[in-house]
Design brief:
Length: 455
């Protein structure tokens, strides 16, 4: 049995290690045990509480050997204080086993227990754990059908007093999927991830791992230390709701974000994992909102039809200028939207032509941010795959020059200059507020190379 340093040295060591609260707790436990250095401990406690200077005493290593020595001398409360403050349970299996026994042995008795049991706690606090153990064993010997909590308390205290905790194997708790979900309900995502990995719940572990990664910004060093008076909204609010276990609220929030911006890839990614976790917990979650996909109906043999009820103007008596409504119902119009043509150019590897289309669309529709955003995406794609050649393709155009070319000063001229820049850009449809390109046979044109030859 190794010697224990004086209590005042341990208090100072805890304080110098940055554990002022633990230092005061240790001093309080030593005073309750009627430690011989009562006067010194009182002065140390007052100095730490008031922030005054603490005497410079010989340092004491706060290691597991010190904790074991305290347990051997039945100073259980002091041993638990050092064990928790020094965080010895992280790397030592025996320390975790000892911490579990100390927690069970020193916990308060249930509220419905007989008040006489408090005497056992007083004996433990006074450093007389063997006497407390004998009292509990006498109660168990005279009681039929003793409550489970009393049996556990007697076993834990017996292991600490008789030294059985040192050789006893660490209890192995079975880790199942239910264990993982229980930790999720307790808002312990880190513990849930560890349990999922031990239970080999691969899919569930992947969902939790991704959510932890998406929400780690809440606890980053760059986060503001001072509380903000601005209410949370958007992604920060969703991250907070996930960490607080409010998965239903986070589900609703991210669906609203996707309604506002269907191209928010991060919101869709987080919502996918939130829905998966809610369903694993047994909650009913609506399906994910569909992605917005550009229409490619014009690739089919039968394109969009003009309805017979739509008329471009008054009827003519001589029939030389038939109305659009006179066309056959099944006749395809082969209308190709400019944005769709640009996307086709991207798929065909002609990103420079797609850029030209989108840049002209930005000129005609300056209020549509989606076009400018798509330009940036295509430029990044070209830069990634083309290397140095991308500089000539992604060169920024002078918007004033484009405006001068695409928007004539004389409104009667139309958009001939724009058509000269890009023949397939089409004219602005004022009714639908879209830019369309009319081509009698788009499939034939798309099958030709730039020089007009067929591939």
């Amino acid at each position: 049995m190794s010697a224990i340093p004086p209590s005042e040295r341990i208090v100072v060591a805890l304080w110098r290690a940055g554990h002022a609260r633990a230092a005061r707790q240790y001093a309080g436990h030593a005073l309750a045990r009627n430690d011989p250095a009562r006067a010194v401990l009182h002065r140390l406690d007052d100095a730490i509480e008031q922030g005054r200077a603490v005497p410079d005493l010989e340092p004491v290593p706060l290691d597991f050997a010190l904790v074991v020595a305290l347990v051997d001398r039945y100073r259980l409360h002091e041993a638990e204080t050092v064990l928790r403050a020094a965080e010895l349970t992280r790397a030592d299996r025996r320390a975790r086993r000892l911490a579990a026994l100390l927690e069970e042995a020193l916990a308060p008795f249930p509220a419905d227990a007989d008040p006489s049991f408090s005497a056992a706690l007083q004996l433990v606090r006074a450093g007389q754990a063997p006497s407390a153990l004998r009292a509990l064993e006498e109660v168990l010997g005279q009681t039929t059908g003793a409550p489970e909590w009393l049996v556990r308390r007697q076993r834990a205290l017996g292991s600490l007093v008789r030294g059985g905790w040192w050789e006893a194997p660490e209890p192995v708790e079975p880790i199942t999927r239910d264990t993982v979900l229980a930790k999720v309900r307790k808002r312990d995502l880190e513990g849930a991830l560890e349990a999922a990995e031990r239970a080999r719940a691969t899919e569930l572990a992947g969902v939790i791992r991704r959510l932890l990664k998406e929400t780690e910004g809440l606890f980053s060093e760059g986060a503001a230390e001072e509380p903000s008076t601005v209410p949370m909204e958007g992604h920060p609010l969703g991250e907070f709701q996930i960490r607080m276990g409010l998965l239903k609220d986070a589900d609703t929030l991210y669906r609203k974000l996707l309604e506002k911006d269907p191209h928010d890839a991060r919101a869709r990614r987080i919502l996918t994992d939130v829905v998966a976790l809610r369903r694993a917990l047994g909650d009913e979650a609506a399906p994910l909102p569909p992605r917005e996909v550009s229409s490619v109906h014009w690739l089919s043999k039968t394109g969009p039809k003009r309805t017979a009820q739509w008329s471009a103007g008054p009827d003519t008596s001589d029939g030389r200028f038939p109305r659009i409504s006179d066309a056959e119902p099944d006749e395809p119009t082969n209308v190709l939207a400019a944005a769709e043509e640009a996307e086709l150019m991207v798929k065909l590897g002609k990103a420079d032509q797609a850029l030209a289309i989108y840049r002209l669309l930005v000129v005609r529709h300056p209020n549509r941010a989606a076009y400018q955003r798509r330009i940036e995406e295509i430029e990044a794609l070209i830069e990634e795959h083309a290397g140095p050649m991308a500089e000539a393709v992604t060169a920024r155009h002078d918007m004033k020059a484009l405006m001068a070319q695409a928007v004539p000063t004389n409104p009667k001229i139309g958009i001939k200059d724009l058509m000269d820049l890009y023949p397939n850009i089409g004219e602005l449809d004022d009714d639908e507020n879209t830019m369309t390109a009319v081509d009698p046979n788009p499939l034939k044109r798309l099958g030709e190379d730039d020089d007009g030859s067929h591939e």
